[in-house]
């Protein structure tokens, strides 16, 4: 049973144990091969580092209202999380953990928590409602922030076919009709909009632990 104090890695282990054997063999193989390829490729070239300006773009809130990351931060430092979408079980695990563990840690520190994905606003709303999120969840049509950070990727042809066999087509879910998705990334942004810390996970089954984010707050 998952408790509020368990790490994201422990929660993912429980998730994967529950998923074992549920997917058709060819689908599981496609996902496994993709994961192995992402691990082997490692960190993409060109990822922004501390000291760079945080990218922004024309974003949408969970109700479809135009906004920006700067507007969501409202002049405050922020922890910005990029995630793939409400369809991704690993994203649900991570954002639920951040709600339970990171939101209380940020309370009183004057630091915003903002999650960004390329999905349509109704996907953002689904994510927020399903996981009872109290922090800001934004839609990024065209993956402007992910591209700016250097963490934009897309499923392989084999994975795209596997996803479609499960009734999942990212082109239908993403706000701009493409299949681009961000590598799960956590960025600590100061009040001036400068990156102070960034943690990128090419392997989407792993995520930045809350303890690492809280430790990085000392950089502000």
TrEMBL record:
UniProt keyword list: Antioxidant, Disulfide bond, Oxidoreductase, Peroxidase, Redox-active center
Domain Thioredoxin: 48-220
GO cellular component, one term: cytoplasm
GO molecular function per UniProt: thioredoxin peroxidase activity
One GO term of the biological process aspect: cell redox homeostasis
Pfam families: AhpC-TSA
Keyword Nucleotide-binding part of the UniProt annotation: no
Protein name (record): thioredoxin-dependent peroxiredoxin
Catalysis performed (reactions): a hydroperoxide + [thioredoxin]-dithiol = an alcohol + [thioredoxin]-disulfide + H2O
Signal peptide: none
Source domain of life: Bacteria
EC annotation from Swiss-Prot or TrEMBL: 1.11.1.24
Entry function: Thiol-specific peroxidase that catalyzes the reduction of hydrogen peroxide and organic hydroperoxides to water and alcohols, respectively. Plays a role in cell protection against oxidative stress by detoxifying peroxides and as sensor of hydrogen peroxide-mediated signaling events.
Similarity remark: Belongs to the peroxiredoxin family. BCP/PrxQ subfamily.
């Amino acid at each position: 049973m998952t408790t509020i104090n368990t790490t994201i890695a422990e929660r993912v282990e429980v998730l994967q144990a529950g998923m074992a054997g549920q997917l058709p063999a060819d689908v599981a193989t496609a996902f496994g091969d993709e994961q192995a390829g992402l691990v082997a490729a490692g960190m993409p070239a060109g990822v922004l580092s501390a000291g760079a300006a945080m990218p922004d773009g024309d974003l949408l809130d969970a109700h479809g209202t135009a906004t920006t990351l700067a507007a969501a931060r409202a002049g405050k430092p922020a922890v910005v999380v990029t995630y793939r979408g409400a369809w991704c079980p690993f994203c649900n695990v991570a954002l639920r953990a951040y709600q339970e563990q990171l939101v209380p840690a940020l309370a009183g520190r004057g630091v915003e928590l903002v999650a960004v994905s390329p999905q349509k606003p109704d996907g953002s709303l689904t994510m927020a409602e399903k996981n009872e999120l109290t922090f800001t969840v934004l839609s990024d049509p065209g993956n402007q922030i992910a591209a700016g950070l250097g963490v934009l990727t897309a499923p392989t042809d084999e994975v795209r076919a596997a996803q479609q066999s499960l009734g999942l087509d990212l082109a239908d879910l993403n706000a701009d009709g493409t299949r681009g998705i961000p590598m799960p990334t956590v960025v600590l942004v100061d009040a001036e909009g400068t990156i102070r810390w960034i943690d990128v996970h090419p392997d989407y089954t792993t995520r930045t632990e809350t303890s690492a984010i809280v430790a990085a707050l000392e950089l502000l």
